[in-house]
Amino acid sequence: KRFAGLLNEELQALEHTAKMRRFKAGETIFRAGDPGDGFYLVESGRVIISAVVGAESRPLATVNAGEFFGEMALLDDAPRSATATAEVDTRAFCIGREELLALLEQKPRLALNLIREFSHRVRSLNRKYIDEILQAERLAMVGRFARTIVHDFKNPLNVIGLAAEMAGMDFATPEMRGHAQVRIARQVARMTNMLNELLDFTRNTSSQLVLASVNYAEYVGALSEEIGTEIAERGMKLRVETPLPTVKVQVEPQRLSRLFYNLVNNAVKFTPRGGISLEVRRVRREPDALDTAPAAPASAGSSR
Questions:
Q1: Which of 89, 176, 252, 287 could staple 172 via S-S, CB 3.0–4.6 A?
Q2: pTM above 0.70, yes or no
Q3: What is the DSSP string of 201-213?
Q4: Does 229 have pLDDT greater than 90?
């Protein structure tokens, strides 16, 4: 706008060569490949600059009243590299390349502002390009994550199936059915959390971390029971160091559970079958004078 504002002051000097042109909404002003024979200053209306990427036309910029477009025609005689279309009814001055170059030679301040505008537009296009590259990479990662989540769904679905089968048995007691109900509810919550994480990633947002105060013994006991049931079906055993301390800890239960599931399942995945056990134990260390942070509550390891 600095450049366009200064240029507007000079339009009287170009009144014999600058032409006012009117474009209807949807009308093409110039197409990619057309000769770059002019420069446009928008008096009123709005113009969309677009280019074909792959097989799809994609908008690159929006030019409003008081702004300009077609500036690349000032630099060389190459064809237009993009298409300009009037989004609404638009009025714009069309200034010939030779006339404007002559004016820039006489007005160094005008040329300086034009260079600044060039730099600003290049930076804006770079940011837009980087954002699109990041979005494309994000979508590619979503595809990879989706495959991982589909694979991860197998374990909770197996647990749900076994629990439902147990609850439906003729000899199932109310206690057994209640236990199956709890297991099913936990696995449904686990799958829901996995899907929510995927959705947060696709929206480029992250849910706020909310810590909850839980009883360490109860939390690890219930979690190890669920994980132990899963890996038992693959010939593995899970051992938990006892007694578990009945202390209150601040954790994000869903994410921490996902962490333990992943650690244990990865250990099982890369461990041969037969007589293998996994151990979950607390890490103990003595605090020194410079480190007063509490010890980590738990860790996962594997041993034969």
A1: 176
A2: no
A3: HHTT--PPP--EE
A4: no
